[in-house]
Each structure stands twice: as structure tokens, then as C-alpha cells.
Design goal:
The complex is a heterodimer of chains A (585) and B (77).
Chain A lengths: L1 E6 L6 E6 L2 E7 L1 H4 L9 H10 L7 E6 L3 H15 L4 H15 L2 H9 L5 E3 L2 H6 L9 E7 L6 E9 L2 E9 L4 H11 L8 H7 L11 H6 L3 E3 L5 E3 L15 H6 L13 H29 L3 E5 L6 H10 L4 E3 L9 H13 L19 H10 L5 E2 L3 H13 L4 E4 L13 E6 L5 H10 L8 E5 L3 H4 L17 E2 L17 E2 L2 E3 L5 H14 L3 E6 L11 H10 L4 E4 L2 E4 L10 H4 L3
Parallel strand pairs in A: 1-4, 4-5, 6-11, 11-12, 14-21, 16-19
Antiparallel strand pairs in A: 1-2, 2-3, 6-7, 7-8, 9-10, 13-22, 14-15, 15-20, 16-20, 17-18, 21-22
Helix pairs in contact in A: 7-11, 15-18
Chain B lengths: L1 H43 L16 E5 L4 H4 L4
The chains are: A alpha/beta (585), B mainly alpha (77).
């Protein structure tokens, strides 16, 4: 039986397909439409899911949707009632989309997909919590933390067998996710997109709670109880009735106006980022300690967009009593289509739990013939490797020689991180590589380091990871300290505080990628590569061979290893694509 | 041909503008009469729609969300 999960109309629309309890296809809509964080109905992602199995919508037994739209609408109306007349402008701007789209999900499904069956609506935080159903655990504590679902912003409960029970919640407008977003907006970065930049900026600030004045100041904004529950002083925010987030009072508290994008980032901004990260971790760890006390389970599953805070994730097993931790590759809203599909199949229809999601390779893939046809049709000069051994040896040598290599292999990753299918790889041992990558491809802020990838069996040699290395590390969801003696040897991936947001890779997940890293280690002595997403700033990660080639030709990526083919940028005429002109972020 | 394309685009733009104006007028009426009157009455009755009080020993609220009969999931509320 097939179950299709859908999430859309907020941010990161996506679709996921389950067959007899196994997740067989999942993708975010942005990869097809090329609009970052696309919110529209995920028609392309649905088509991909169905095409991957050569089925049509009539073969799907059930369609699940990731929230209860009418309850969410009730919350939106409550905001307007509470804040009348100050919410007038947002009422005018938001109501048309509610009337035309968000309250007409069933109609949209019937019209666009010709779907005739019933639609199953699952609460937003339950869709996040359902991550547990594809985890390795038979019993676990579940915590969901995000911006907001219908009303819930934080929830916890227990998963046991096929059942999930969410016991307690914290409600809108108090939200750790929205607090993080509000400060992100204050620091001049885009909301629902650049929270990770604030996380990356935080180690540059004062991380001593006693010395950071903004930590003390921000503590006035949020009241955190010993049991981890919290409530925010809403006089510091306007997001519950405006399309902005921080209030004038928050600006006064933070000693200045909202930072304008692209202007200088001062020490004050860095200290604010540090204060926010410390408060977030303080609240999260208190929640987790409380949840452990209530649930008495040593296994923890986290869902919700805050699960992408890899700095906090890397510390949680050392700061709470939990012994094991799991999260899916996309804990944010994009991942709820997978969650709702799993919930429908396992919890509602009582299908047997057989799959533990071990890798993120659930997106579109292209055969050798597809790629060959693309290259030949477009008269792109290329070389074909005779076997995988030659591919691995040549690519490792190219990376060792400080070339920037686009790596396009197998099925696209599910979730926001490039994990070795649509990655740009380069030499982590070159001290100049951060600058080279920024100059050639990424054009991103100087304070952001690149991420390392290491084989799982080598991770403990170079990183101070939890033992055994938690599986979310495979999905780049954990930041760990790099061991002191290696920091100077892999400077491009070492953050200012000596940490790295590593990806660990196991051979059974992606043998070609694993072998490449091992080969690089064999010829350089350090089996660590820089792995950054295959895109230019402001664009989604590439999906098709066309996207990959276009990205390479518009940037300074030197080589593209696509399937068993090698394409050299300099052998082919550059088109008019200009990555700087197109960088939107 | 380009003339007709221009006319088509212009008509579409005109349609969008009219829709936006009518929507704004209707939504303003709904906001003033529907939301406004309810909000005033709610304020008179001291009804709060959002939990913002910074009081109490814990802010956790009971949720008790678990599996229900499938028919309940067909509802959007």
C-alpha cells in the first residue's frame, strides 16, 4: 500500500511516499521549481514520488497532510482579535492566501492531482513527532520544538511501538523558534532561512554568561522555569500582529536598531548571537532534563525546525541524562511530509514498523544513460571513467591538487544538507580553501566556516564526538569539537571555537563517497574533505544534471564528477550565467 | 500579434488591480465589523485569546494528543 505525505503553504513544501511501510521517495518542491524554501503546493515533488514507482495518484491508498488548517486559522484569527486594530495590515495581506489556498487543501488535491480519496489531516507537531516511527527505537522520549504549528510551539511525549502520545505543550506566542527567528531578523538576516548563520556567528561573541551583557538583557525577554517551560514577554516582539518580528522595545534593549543586511557585523551583533544561542541551549536542556524525568526513557527523538540547531544537538547528550539521540535528515517543516506519511501508515493504519531511516538518499536519481544523453545532446566535452576505482582515484587526486569538484552522484538528498549526492568537495587541509571556495563559488559571509566530512570509523580520531557516533551526525545535525592536535591541519573546516559541523559517512550508506574520502586520506594522510552544498548563494541545491552543469559553468567549480563522467569547466564554453548577479540571499 | 499580447497582459493586470481593490475593501469591512466588534466585546469581557501572562510555576499545558479513530483525521479541525 502507498501512502503519500504532503506539506505546503508555510515554508519548504515537500512530498514523501511510503510503500508498505518503507520510505521510497521524498523531495522538497524547491529543488524542482528552483525557488528557495518554495511554499507552493508540491506538485513537482508529488509527480517525482509517483513517477519513481511508475504509479499514478489512483494507486495511492491514503494522502496525509501535515497540519489541521482550520485550527491554524483559528489561531490566526485569535491573533487578530487580540491585537485589533494593530493587526489590520497583516489581516489584509494574509487573508487572501488563507481564503484562496490554505483552507482549500482538499479542493487543491482533487483539482491538481485528481485524487478522489479522503485526506488525512494530522496535527503539525504530531507530524514532527512521527519522526520517531522511522527511528531505531522501540520506545523513546519525543520532543518537538519549532516556530509554531497550529497553536503548539513546543511539545513532548512518548513513542512506544506504533503509538505516539504527546503529553504536554507550550503554545503560541511563546516559542523558542520564533525567539531565534526574531533575533535573526534583528541581526539583519532572513527569517526561516538564516537562523543557522546566527548559530554560526555565536562563537565569535562572548560565550561567558557572566561577561555577556546581552545574555542578561535577553533573560528579561523570556521566563524559563526549572521544568523547561517558558513564556516570552510579548512587549519585545511584534510578530503576533505584524510582518516584522522585533519591537522597538527589543531594539532599545539590544542598544541599537535592526542591523541592515550586508552592513558590518560588529562585536555587539556577535555578542547578541552568542547570548541567544546560550539562552536557547539553556531552555532546551532544561526541557530535555524535565522530559527525561517524566518519560524515564534514555532514548530521545527531536523533531521541529529547532532540531537543525546542530550546535545545541552536539552538546545534548553531555548536558542531559539521555543516552541515545535520533533525528531525521530534515527535522524542520520540510520533513513533515515524511512524518505525516509515517504516522498514517504506522500509527493510524497500524502497519508494521520495519524501516529505520539510515540515509537521506530519497530524491531523484539519474542513470548513466540519462547523464550521457544530457552531455551529448548539449555537446558538453567530457571523459568517461572506465570504472569506479578510476573515478575515485582521479577525483581524490583532483581534490588533493586544490581543485573545487562538483560531486553529482546517485539520488538527491532529503533535507536541507548536501550529504554526498549533490555536494561540492574540496581539500580541507589547504589553509586557503575557505577563501578559494568563497571566491569561486559560495560568496558567503566570511564568518561561516565550511563543513567537514569524515568516514564514521575515522570520526573519533579527529573529533571529540559522543561514543558511539550518533546517527544524526550522518545527517550533519551535530557540531563537535575538533581534537586540538588536528585543528591547524584542517583549518578550512575549523570554526573559531575549534568546532566543526561534521558529516560522518558509513560505507553502507554511500560506498563511492566513502571510498573517495578514504582514498583522499590515503594520499594526503588526512581522510577529511570539505563538503558544501552544490548550489550558489540564494539558490536551492542542484537537482538535475542540467542544474549541476549550469551551476559549475556559472561559478568557479573546476570539475564536475557526474555519474561516471568527468567534465572540466575550462574545456567548455561559459554561458552568460553569472552567479554573483543571481545570488539573492 | 504583439499588440494582442499587450492587450491580453494589460487586461490581466487590470483584473489583478480590480481584484486587489475589491479584496481590500471587503476585507476592511470584515476586519472592522467582524473582528473589530468581536474584539471590543471580548475586551469588555476580559477575554484573552493569547496566553501572555508571566505568572505561575510552570507554563506546560496538558495536550494529551494520541491516536484516534481514522474518521477524526478526515476533519481539518
Amino acid at each position: 500500500m502507498y501512502v503519500l505525505g504532503i506539506s505546503c503553504y508555510y515554508h519548504d513544501s515537500s512530498a514523501a511516499l511510503i510503500k508498505d511501510g518503507r520510505i521510497i521517495a521524498a523531495a522538497q518542491e524547491e529543488r524542482f521549481t528552483r525557488k528557495k524554501h518554495d511554499t507552493s503546493f508540491p506538485i513537482n515533488a508529488v509527480r517525482f514520488c509517483l513517477k519513481s514507482q511508475n504509479i499514478d495518484i489512483n494507486d495511492v491508498g491514503h494522502v496525509g497532510f501535515y497540519e489541521k488548517p482550520f485550527i491554524k486559522f483559528e489561531r490566526v484569527l485569535s491573533q487578530h482579535l487580540q491585537m485589533f486594530p494593530r493587526s489590520y495590515k497583516t489581516f489584509l495581506s494574509s487573508m487572501p492566501s488563507w481564503i484562496n489556498e490554505k483552507l482549500r487543501v482538499v479542493r487543491k488535491l482533487r483539482k491538481t492531482l485528481k485524487y478522489k480519496g479522503d485526506v488525512i489531516f494530522v496535527e503539525h507537531h504530531m507530524a514532527h513527532a512521527a519522526t520517531y516511527l522511522v527511528s531505531p527505537f522501540d520506545k523513546a522520549a519525543i520532543v518537538t520544538v519549532d516556530g509554531v504549528g497550529e497553536w503548539t510551539t513546543t511539545a513532548y511525549g512518548v513513542g512506544e511501538g506504533n503509538d505516539i502520545k504527546l503529553i504536554k505543550e507550550l503554545k503560541f506566542p511563546s516559542s523558542l523558534g520564533l525567539l531565534y527567528s526574531a533575533i535573526t531578523a534583528y541581526l539583519g538576516f532572513s527569517v526561516n532561512n538564516s537562523e543557522y548563520k546566527v548559530m554560526g556567528l555565536s562563537p565569535y561573541g562572548m560565550m561567558d554568561k557572566k561577561k555577556n551583557i546581552y545574555y542578561r538583557k535577553l533573560k528579561n525577554v523570556i521566563d524559563i522555569k526549572d521544568d523547561g517551560s517558558f513564556r516570552m514577554d510579548m512587549s519585545y516582539f511584534v510578530y503576533h500582529f505584524k510582518d516584522r518580528m522585533p519591537s522597538k522595545k527589543l531594539c532599545e534593549l539590544m542598544d541599537g536598531p535592526v542591523r541592515k543586511p550586508e552592513t558590518e557585523i560588529t562585536q555587539r551583533h556577535k555578542d547578541i548571537a552568542a547570548a541567544l544561542q546560550m539562552i536557547y541551549e539553556e531552555a532546551l536542556f532544561k526541557i530535555l532534563k524535565h522530559v527525561h524525568k517524566v518519560t524515564r526513557s534514555d532514548n530521545l527523538v527531536i523533531g521541529g525546525g529547532c532540531g537543525l540547531n546542530s550546535v545545541a544537538n552536539g552538546k545534548l547528550l553531555r548536558n542531559t541524562p539521555f543516552k541515545r539521540f535520533w533525528s531525521q535528515p530534515d527535522p524542520g517543516d520540510g520533513g513533515t511530509s515524511l512524518g505525516v506519511a509515517a504516522y498514517v501508515y504506522h500509527a493510524i493504519l497500524r502497519g508494521k514498523r520495519e524501516q529505520h531511516l539510515k540515509d537521506a538518499y530519497l530524491g531523484p536519481g539519474y542513470t548513466t544513460e540519462d547523464i550521457r544523453s544530457f552531455l551529448e545532446t548539449n555537446r558538453i566535452k567530457h571523459k568517461e571513467f572506465k570504472d569506479e576505482k578510476e573515478l575515485v582515484k582521479t577525483t581524490a587526486k583532483l581534490i588533493k591538487d586544490d581543485n573545487v569538484v562538483g560531486w553529482f552522484q546517485g539520488r538527491m538528498e532529503w533535507g536541507p544538507r548536501a550529504l554526498g549526492s549533490r555536494s561540492i568537495l574540496s581539500n580541507a587541509t589547504n589553509p586557503q580553501m575557505q577563501e578559494i571556495l568563497n571566491l569561486k563559488v559560495k560568496h558567503r559571509e566570511k564568518f561561516r566556516p565550511f563543513a567537514p566530512v569524515v568516514c564514521e570509523d575515522d570520526a573519533l580520531t579527529y573529533f571529540d564526538c559522543d561514543k558511539p557516533v550518533p546517527e544524526p551526525t550522518d545527517f550533519m545535525l551535530m557540531v563537535y569539537p575538533i581534537l586540538e592536535r588536528w585543528r591547524k591541519k584542517i583549518p578550512s573546516v575549523t570554526h573559531v571555537d575549534g568546532s566543526g559541523r561534521l558529516q560522518s559517512i558509513r560505507r553502507e550508506q554511500n560506498s563511492l563517497y566513502y571510498d573517495l574520502i578514504k582514498e583522499f586520506g590515503r594520499i594526503t594522510g588526512i581522510p577529511i574533505l570539505i563538503n558544501t552544498s552544490f548550489n550558489i548563494r540564494g539558490e536551492p541545491i542542484v537537482c538535475t544534471p542540467h542544474d549541476a552543469y549550469k551551476c559549475m559553468m556559472g561559478t568557479g567549480v573546476d570539475y564536475l564528477v557526474m555519474g561516471k563522467f568527468l567534465v572540466r569547466r575550462e574545456d567548455n564554453p561559459r554561458d552568460m550565467w553569472d552567479s554573483e548577479k543571481n545570488a539573492k540571499d | 500579434m504583439s499588440f494582442f499580447n499587450g492587450v491580453k497582459k494589460g487586461t490581466a493586470l487590470f483584473g489583478h488591480c480590480i481584484t486587489a481593490i475589491i479584496n481590500s475593501i471587503l476585507l476592511t469591512l470584515v476586519y472592522a465589523l467582524g473582528v473589530g466588534i468581536t474584539a471590543v466585546l471580548a475586551k469588555l469581557c476580559r477575554k484573552n485569546f493569547l496566553d501572555t501572562d508571566l505568572k505561575g510555576r510552570s507554563y506546560w499545558k496538558k495536550l494529551d494528543l494520541k491516536k484516534r479513530p481514522i474518521e477524526e483525521y478526515y476533519r481539518q479541525f
